[in-house]
Amino acid sequence: MLEDLAFPIERLGQAVTDVQLLFEKYKYENGIIFGHAKDGNLHFVISQGFFTKEDIDRFEHFNQDLFDLVLNKYDGALKAEHSTGRAVSAFVEKEWGPAAYRVMKRLKNVIDPANLLNPGIIITEDKQAHVHDLKVMPVVEEEVDKCIECGYCEQSCPSRDLTLTPRRRIVIRRAIKRMEDTGDRAGRKALLKDYRYDGMETGAVDGMCGELPGEH
Ligand code: SF4
Question: Model confidence at 64, in pLDDT bands (50, 70, 90)?
């Protein structure tokens, strides 16, 4: 989870302490906080698996407490500089109130009556959207596992207009691993075939794609 909160700047110090206390309460010992202090904008990263119901419950309760902290204790904002995605869409009405949310829904309906554009993102009827369809990131290898798919490499990768960026390579490595884990042999074979050119033969020698998975 990579978040993007805003707090009133004069209470930012206390807010940092409160977020750290939530890390402790929910045992996110690896949580890190960074951001743009002069703007009252905090990012933080926590990581966890979603393998069991307990994992998902922990994430759910952490989210409830966090968003309660931001909205009710600090009158802050759930999004400061990035957009609202699946993890926050269930809380948009809580943040802006039912009247503003109704206006958002009407606007969305005017622009996109068939709800084709980004369904379930920002505007959603699913009040548990943040814990549904969680993206599984399987363990692949040390170098790949460090990637949080932030996308910063998209702009700087010299091969981006020809082939895959590091993030895209990593996303495909993870997809291949998921297929291995679920026994999808045909899907894995097809991805590996395409990966030879897109992932191996046209890389910019960045080291992330030095070995084709499963073909050592
Ligand atoms: S490889 Fe790219 S997407 Fe992954 S953490 Fe590094 S910059 Fe972000």
Answer: very high
Mean pLDDT of the residues in the chain:
89
Does residue 126 surpass a pLDDT of 50? yes
Ligand 1 atom index nearest CA of 165:
2
Burial of 125 (0-12, 13-18, 19+ CB in 10 A): exposed
Q: What is the second-level CATH architecture of the domain 2-131?
A: 2-Layer Sandwich (3.30)
Pocket test for ligand 1, best of 142, 160, 164, 167 (most atoms within 8 A of CB): 167
Among 47, 153, 165, name the best residue to mutate to test ligand 1's pocket (greatest count of ligand atoms within 8 A of Cβ).
153
Exposure letters 151-175 (e unless 16+ CB within 10 A, then b) = eebeeebebbeebbbbbbbbbbbbb
Give the pLDDT band (50/70/90) at residue 71: very high
The reply to whether ligand 1 has any atom less than 6 angstroms from the CB of 148 is yes
For the chain, domain boundaries: 2-131, 142-201
Q: For residue 178, give the nearest of 144, 216, 143, 131 by alpha carbon.
A: 144
In the 8-state DSSP scheme, what is residue 141?
-
The reported pTM is 0.78
**Quick check: 213 pLDDT over 80?**
no
